[in-house]
Amino acid sequence: MRRVDRDEAGIRLDRWFKLHYPGLGFGHLQKLIRSGQVRVDGARVAASARLAAGQEIRVPPLAATDQRKTQSPAGGGSSDRELLDAALLHEDKQIIVFNKPAGLAVQGGSGVTRHVDAMLAAYADRQGRKPRLVHRLDRDTAGVLVVARTRAAAAFLGGAFKARETKKIYWALVAGIPRRQSGRISTYLARDEASERMRDARHGEPGAEHAVTHYALADQAGQKVAWLVMQPITGRTHQLRAHAAHLGHPILGDPKYFNIENWQPPGGIQNRLHLLARRIVIPHPAGGTLDVAAPPPPHMQQSFAVLGFDERTGEEVVL
After folding, report:
1. Model pTM?
2. Is 82 exposed, middle or buried (0-12, 13-18, 19+ CB in 10 A)?
3. Residue 18 pLDDT exceeds 80
4. CB 13, CB 33: distance < 8 Å
5. CA 10, 12, 17, 23 torsion-angle sign
6. Cα separations (Å) of 112 from 37, 98, 100, 106, 108?
7. How far from 78 is each of 110, 167, 174, 201, 299, CA to CA, in Å?
8. In this structure, are residues 118 and 131 in contact, taking their beta carbons and an 8 Å threshold?
9. At residue 58, does pLDDT exceed 70?
10. Within a domain: 72
11. Domain span at residue 84?
12. Active site members
């Protein structure tokens, strides 16, 4: 048995085998999967199935030529380049867009041993210049992450974010059903250093910043769980997580902002943050716009299946 690493969450099963067993031919792998010799948590799965961290993969006995494994510089799991390649959504001469896995930090910090900013060295050009981050996602938020290949592209994209010329769409599963099916959340947020979270603040209070979010209900499971489509107009730290809690409907699996006591999720829903950076529409340095979407991470796909939500419903919501 092999366990799926946290930083491999969201990777396809066939891609996982290509990373860990590069000597295993595509046809041979397909045969192993179809015949049920490969199983995930004891169940048959398709080659296209996306994996969740902690799942156990049954790997049948392989020939010696199939067993060569790819190791990262740290000595385990996939290499930085391979992990980023597996998460690639778009690439051109000026921009790269990744589907950042939930649990992978964007930048370094206390207790962070692996993060996207350092991993981008694997995409350095011939002069050793690595791509540059132009925005961030929380560590436990999955989805669209835009990176600039050049200094000029970074300046252009940074200006677009600052001028609010970008459109960012998020999907969130929250506890309970908002009274209004759509609306605008406008608050002031300030950082509480003791709890490392954002709190509601008053206008003019030191450190308080105005935060605005639009939201709309995409679907609901009885009165238990709502699927919200959210669009942050401003870009404050933890904005959507804090605003969902302010609305009285915190995001499922949020360790910092879930504040409903004795609330139990429906069976089959993992206790992980159910927040996806679903889509971004951004001006392109070469002209026109870039419009990229990311699929939900495995734990959210599982929750959608449990709750009977259809991903196509979210695409029909207009904010």
Report:
1. 0.76
2. buried
3. no
4. yes
5. negative
6. 36, 20, 16, 10, 6
7. 23, 32, 33, 43, 21
8. no
9. yes
10. no
11. 80-162
12. 138
181 with 283, same domain: the answer is: yes
Q: What is the mean pLDDT of residues 114-118?
A: 91
Question: In degrees, to the nearest 5, what angle opens at C-alpha 136 toward C-alphas 303 and 248?
Answer: 50
Inter-helix orientation angle 13-20/26-34, to 10°: 130
- pLDDT digit string, tens, across residues 239-259: 999 999 999 999 999 999 999
Backbone angles phi, psi at 307, to 5 degrees: -90, -10
Sort 158 into a burial class: Cβ within 10 Å, 0-12 / 13-18 / 19+.
middle
- Judge whether 124 lies within some domain: yes
Whether the CB-CB separation of 295 and 87 falls below 8 Å is answered with no
pLDDT value at 68 more than 70: no
So what's the pLDDT on residue 12?
A: 86
Residues 191 and 263 in one domain: yes
- Alpha-carbon gap, residue 212 to 191, rounded angstroms: 16
For residue 291, the one-letter residue type is D
Tell me the three state secondary structure of residue 55: coil
Query: Tell me, what amino acid is at 256?
Result: K
Helices vs. strands in the chain: H and E counts, helices first: 8, 14
Digit-coded pLDDT (tens) for 161-195: 999 999 999 999 999 999 999 999 999 999 998 88
Q: Which amino acid is at 93?
A: K
Please state, rounded to an integer, the average pLDDT across all residues of the chain.
Answer: 90
Structure tokens at 286: 């070469």
Nearest to 168, CA basis, from 237, 235, 101:
235
Residues 185 and 170: beta-carbon distance below 8 Å: no
Is 71 contained in some domain?
no
